[in-house]
């Protein structure tokens, strides 16, 4: 069963075969940071590097033409994944969620918005960028609360002519923005815009973003089973309104001494200055095809994730001294122990092959300033996780937290 020569398990019990390369002693529970890549995604990027390693958007030779076709296919796959119409939305690629948010927020016009609104339970990629946005626009910034179900609590005054930037799913406790639809409706009525940080939503909870009418959605392909890449979905109207200030090769049709014209028919390029990560873009297309067809043990990916998340949550919940932050099970579970420091727990777990995260997960304001919590330990499962991983993790946690 275990092939020592190349360290590959040939027939692991209860693991999706696309992750057969994971050795049975490694329990990777840091999917919220970046997911494991299924074999078809790894094959797609290898195939690009070994068979048609060309740039896109610039060349007439065969390899480049294939890249262009695959990149366009991926843009369509992304929009289809969320059932968003191509006549209204554009899909562009960048480095990660953080870059996507920065690209949009730093290019928003200075005279269109009167306030910036976010929530207290945000990743630094939202929290810090909204601080900078409010400074640049010289407007006030609202940091709102969410209720225990993840709904953003707001008044009409706090969203009037506002740039509202919030996550769809939290990277601390998996809390979902359940009132997303109403929020978008209300913000639009109040002449504002909504930018969604979908970093934790796209892999396992993308259904909540289907037909979403947000003005922009940013996410990271590396958190949805593809290789490292950022994705921006943006309404054409918002894209047109941006002051394009991140500019360069691959986006202009004409250049004069002191002026230039952007490609009128290739709006995606307006957010893509310079050469892009073509292999990574192509791998994202493959991951979407995989995510929409894979049936882990006969279940939809979301249902499989719910099942193993609940098993892990229930097991951890029973361990004495542990305080779980989640209200409900989720692919992301954060906790602390009354007596044992989270960083120590992470080191003990690592000694047995279990990989978790400890600290504040780039949510310093909420966890440290607001709640004054000690460092946390975070477990995040993925489609590669199997029941053996869950059992081992619970047993190890019981052992290492025993007084
Ligand atoms: C909710 C959330 N938003 C934004 C980010 C930032 O993603 P990236 O580091 O890929 O830019 C993360 C990363 O963990 C996240 O979990």
List the helices and strands and how they pair.
Elements: E1 2-3, E2 8-9, E3 27-28, H1 39-51, H2 62-81, E4 89-94, H3 97-105, E5 115-119, H4 124-137, E6 140-144, H5 156-159, E7 162-167, H6 180-189, E8 193-197, E9 216-220, E10 230-235, H7 236-241, E11 252-256, E12 259-262, H8 278-291, H9 301-317, E13 322-324, E14 332-337, H10 342-351, E15 354-355, E16 357-359, H11 364-370, E17 376-380, H12 387-400
Parallel strand pairs: 3-15, 5-6, 5-7, 7-8, 8-9
Antiparallel strand pairs: 1-2, 4-10, 9-10, 11-12, 13-14, 14-17, 16-17
Helix pairs in contact: 1-8, 2-8, 3-4, 9-12
Bound molecules: pyridoxal-5'-phosphate (PLP).
Pyridoxal-5'-phosphate binds at residues 32-33, 96-98, 123, 125, 167, 171, 197, 199-200, 220.
Structure notes:
This protein has helices spanning 39-51, 62-81, 97-105, 124-137, 156-159, 180-189, 236-241, 278-291, 301-317, 342-351, 364-370, 387-400, and strands at 2-3, 8-9, 27-28, 89-94, 115-119, 140-144, 162-167, 193-197, 216-220, 230-235, 252-256, 259-262, 322-324, 332-337, 354-355, 357-359, 376-380. With 403 residues, it is of the alpha/beta class. It folds into two domains: 2-30 and 296-400, Aspartate Aminotransferase, domain 1; 43-291, 3-Layer(aba) Sandwich (Aspartate Aminotransferase, domain 2). Strands 4-10-9-8-7-5-6 form a seven-stranded mixed beta sheet, sandwiched between helices. Strands 13-14-17-16 form a four-stranded antiparallel beta sheet, with helices on one face. It has a two-stranded antiparallel ribbon with strand order 1-2. Helix 1 runs antiparallel to helix 8. The radius of gyration is 22 Å and the shape is globular. The relative contact order is 0.16. Pyridoxal-5'-phosphate binds next to helix 3.
């Amino acid at each position: 069963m275990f092939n020592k020569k190349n360290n590959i398990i040939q027939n692991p019990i209860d693991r999706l075969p696309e992750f057969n390369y994971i050795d049975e002693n490694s329990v990777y529970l840091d999917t919220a940071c970046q997911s494991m890549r299924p074999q078809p995604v790894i094959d797609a990027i290898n195939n690009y590097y070994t068979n048609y390693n060309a740039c896109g958007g610039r060349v007439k030779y065969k390899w480049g033409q294939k890249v262009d076709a695959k990149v366009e296919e991926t843009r369509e796959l992304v929009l289809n994944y969320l059932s968003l119409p191509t006549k209204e939305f554009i899909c562009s690629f960048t480095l990660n969620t953080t870059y996507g948010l920065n690209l949009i927020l730093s290019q928003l016009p200075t005279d269109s918005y009167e306030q910036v609104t976010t929530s207290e339970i945000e990743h630094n990629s939202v929290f810090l960028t909204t601080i900078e946005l409010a400074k640049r626009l010289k407007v006030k910034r609202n940091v709102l609360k969410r209720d225990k179900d993840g709904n953003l609590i707001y008044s009409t005054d706090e969203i009037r002519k506002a740039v509202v930037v919030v996550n769809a799913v939290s990277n601390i406790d998996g809390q979902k923005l359940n009132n997303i639809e109403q929020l978008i409706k209300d913000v639009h009525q109040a002449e504002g815009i909504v930018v969604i940080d979908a970093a934790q939503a796209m892999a396992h909870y993308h259904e909540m973003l289907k037909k979403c009418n947000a003005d922009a959605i940013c996410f990271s392909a590396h958190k949805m089973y593809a290789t490292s890449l950022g994705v921006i979905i943006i309404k054409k109207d918002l894209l047109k309104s941006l002051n394009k200030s991140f500019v360069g090769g691959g986006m202009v049709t004409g250049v004069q001494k002191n002026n230039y014209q952007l490609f009128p028919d290739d709006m995606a390029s307006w957010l893509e200055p310079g050469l892009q990560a073509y292999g990574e873009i192509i791998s994202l297309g493959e991951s979407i095809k995989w995510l929409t067809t894979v049936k882990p043990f006969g279940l939809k990916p979301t249902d499989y994730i719910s099942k193993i998340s609940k098993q892990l949550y229930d097991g951890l919940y029973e361990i004495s001294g542990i305080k779980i932050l989640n209200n409900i099970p989720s692919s992301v579970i954060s906790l602390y122990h009354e007596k044992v420091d989270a960083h120590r727990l992470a080191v003990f777990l690592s000694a047995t092959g279990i990989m978790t995260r400890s600290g504040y997960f780039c949510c310093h304001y909420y966890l440290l300033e607001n709640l004054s919590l000690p460092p946390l330990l975070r477990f995040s499962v993925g489609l590669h996780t199997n029941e053996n991983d869950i059992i081992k993790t619970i047993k190890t946690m019981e052992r290492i937290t025993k007084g």
